[in-house]
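We emphasize that the prediction below concerns an isolated chain of 305 residues; any contacts that depend on oligomerization or on bound cofactors are therefore not represented. The input was used exactly as deposited, without trimming of termini.
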Amino acid sequence: MAALPKVDKIWMDGALVDWDDAQVHVLTHALHYGSGVFEGIRCYSTDDGPAVFRLTEHMERLARSAKIMRMDMPYTVEQLVDATLATIAANNLPGCYIRPLVYRGYGVMGLDPLPSPVSTMIAVWPWDTYLGEDALKNGVDAGVSSWRQRGNNSTPPQVKSTGSYINSSFARMEANDHGYAEAILLNEAGMVCEGTGENIFVIRDEIIVTPPVSDGVLEGITRDTVIALATDLDYDVIEASLTRADLYIADEIFFTGSAAEVVPVRSVDHRAIGKPGPITLAIQKAYFDVVRGKDPEYDYWLERV
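Result of the prediction step, given as a token string:
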């Protein structure tokens, strides 16, 4: 993976600071205990200039994550939306990835996080699709991980926290070791959950199925987008539990996420799914038309810089 590209400014606690000056103390609570919540958002180049896809919805989810973590977020959703647009403008980026982070800062140490101060930052940088351009075109090979997704009564899947993604890192490293581009995690009951950073959709007999939130998946905003687009394209979409075997006999499978976008899966555990199928490609095209401002019906999902 390419090194993180530098830009000029990062927004930290209400001010734009130089990239190299955006630093925290080594005893920052979040660095030791994972006490932070974050989002992954994309800004796309459109004919009308840079536009952020579903920015307000992402910031609303960030606020929900902070509430679950009992973190008093120092800024409103509207203030974070404005700060994001200002940060993109300050860096003069036509398109970019956006990473807001609310985290417990420097001041106290210990497992009780409540006395720690809460800080907020927003960083932006140019970032190609997460799994690569070839993945969008030709799909990826995936494998079911030996690691299980966290349960609803451990770290809730509804909180997008920094600490909970250690589990995803274990699964991704294992996938890499086995030659897969991505891992698929099951929950503790053995039902299909999600990828390390993506929701998953399985198609059989032209019916699109995605695991329900109750099975331990993140309430993905790209997931919600794809459900809406697929429905508008007159496909049948249902939320239902899936077994590992359902993956093996699927006609089509694809991942969704803000970083990954819409990525076909061409095999699972060395069982061929095949080249990207017609339904996956139709949804992928519809998605990119929307985020790039080419479908006026969904223009309300774009927030212009």
